[in-house]
Amino acid sequence: MTLRKIPMPSVTSIVARSYPDNIIGVDGQLPWHLRTDLLHFKRVTQNHAIIMGRKTYESLGRPLPNRMNIVLSQKEVPDAQSVRWARDPETALILADTHSILAGQKELFVIGGETIYKLFFKFINRVWLTEVFCGPLNGDAKFEQVFDSQEWYPVSERDYSPAENDDWPFRITCLNRRKPLHRMRSREEFLAVDPTVRSRLDSLFGASRVGAGMEKQPQATKQFPMEL
Ligand SMILES: NC(=O)c1ccc[n+]([C@@H]2O[C@H](COP(=O)([O-])OP(=O)(O)OC[C@H]3O[C@@H](n4cnc5c(N)ncnc54)[C@H](OP(=O)(O)O)[C@@H]3O)[C@@H](O)[C@H]2O)c1
């Protein structure tokens, strides 16, 4: 018997790095305050699942509201409303997938830091990249990914002059992978991680069932600042 599978949400990362040094963090904190970019981050990620490393979670100081905060760590992170601990990257992904499909969201987010961007890069179909024009900068966390035009294309790009509470000018570019990864999962994969979602999954996996031997091919799916 083949197990029916359904399409998983697409994975997007969102990152702000310095130009030209690709620095994203200094001593566990962001190297700048950019209110406009934080508001952009909030607008893009709200109501979605967000995956982050333990150090980034600690630097935030609290779970981000109106998002499912999934925190990767080898040590248990206490569960709280809208916080889930993931002991490894696959657990993080399936927790984010579960939240997303039950919430009807087609996209989930990887929000850093350096280690976590690297771990998930192979899954990333879209990147929201903020380049901060702050000049040379030293830091201990970097995002050095190069976006080769053979593999990535920009869907939008906008330059920002510093508004009130923005330390520097910056540019926000949205890049899509030319050949996106389409991930699929079966109901059983979800139940192995969280049996309590059985009844809620039933409607999703049953909804488009078209009968034995006639299953459709899945369609491609496409001290923290107050601003967040
Ligand atoms: N500019 C931006 O857009 C941006 C965005 C986010 C973060 N940042 C900055 O980035 C810096 C933090 O980055 P970072 O790379 O040092 O830390 P991080 O990626 O936030 O967290 C690293 C931690 O994640 C956990 N982890 C990593 N791989 C794992 C795996 N395979 N399995 C289980 N757990 C795993 C480990 O936690 P345990 O040690 O607990 O096991 C590890 O210490 C900070 O300065 C932050 O401000 C910048």
List the helices and strands and how they pair.
Layout: E1 5-7, E2 10-18, E3 23-25, H1 35-45, E4 49-53, H2 54-60, E5 68-72, E6 83-86, H3 89-103, E7 107-110, H4 114-120, E8 124-132, E9 141-142, E10 152-160, E11 170-177, E12 184-186, H5 187-193, H6 198-207
Parallel strand pairs: 2-7, 2-8, 4-5, 4-7, 5-6
Antiparallel strand pairs: 1-12, 3-9, 8-11, 10-11
The protein binds NADP nicotinamide-adenine-dinucleotide phosphate (NAP).
The site of NADP nicotinamide-adenine-dinucleotide phosphate (NAP) has 28 residues, from β2, β3, β4, α2 and α4.
Task: Write a concise synopsis of the structure shown.
This protein is an alpha/beta fold and 228 residues long.
Describe this structure in words.
With 228 residues, this protein is an alpha/beta fold. The chain has one domain: Dihydrofolate Reductase, subunit A, CATH 3.40.430.10. It has six helices and twelve strands. It has helices at 35-45, 54-60, 89-103, 114-120, 187-193, 198-207; strands at 5-7, 10-18, 23-25, 49-53, 68-72, 83-86, 107-110, 124-132, 141-142, 152-160, 170-177, 184-186. The strands form three sheets. An eight-stranded mixed β-sheet has the order 6-5-4-7-2-8-11-10, sandwiched between helices. The model is unreliable at 207-222 (pLDDT under 50). The chain binds NADP nicotinamide-adenine-dinucleotide phosphate.
Discrete helix count: 6
Number of strands: 12
CATH topology: Dihydrofolate Reductase, subunit A
* Helical/strand content category: alpha/beta
Q: Could you tell me which ligands this complex binds, including any ions or cofactors?
A: NADP nicotinamide-adenine-dinucleotide phosphate
Shape: globular
Could you estimate the helical fraction of the residues in percent? Answer: 25-40%
Q: Give the rounded overall mean pLDDT.
A: 90
Any low-confidence stretches, pLDDT <50, length ≥5?
207-222
Q: Record the strand order, biggest sheet.
A: 6-5-4-7-2-8-11-10
Distance between the termini: 47 Å
CATH architecture: 3-Layer(aba) Sandwich
CATH homologous group name: Dihydrofolate Reductase, subunit A
Question: What's the domain count?
Answer: 1
Rg from C-alpha positions?
Answer: 19 Å
Order of helices and strands: EEEHEHEEHEHEEEEEHH
Fraction in beta strands: 25-35%
Please report the first level of CATH classification, the CATH class.
Answer: Alpha Beta
The major pleated sheet works out as: 8 strands, mixed
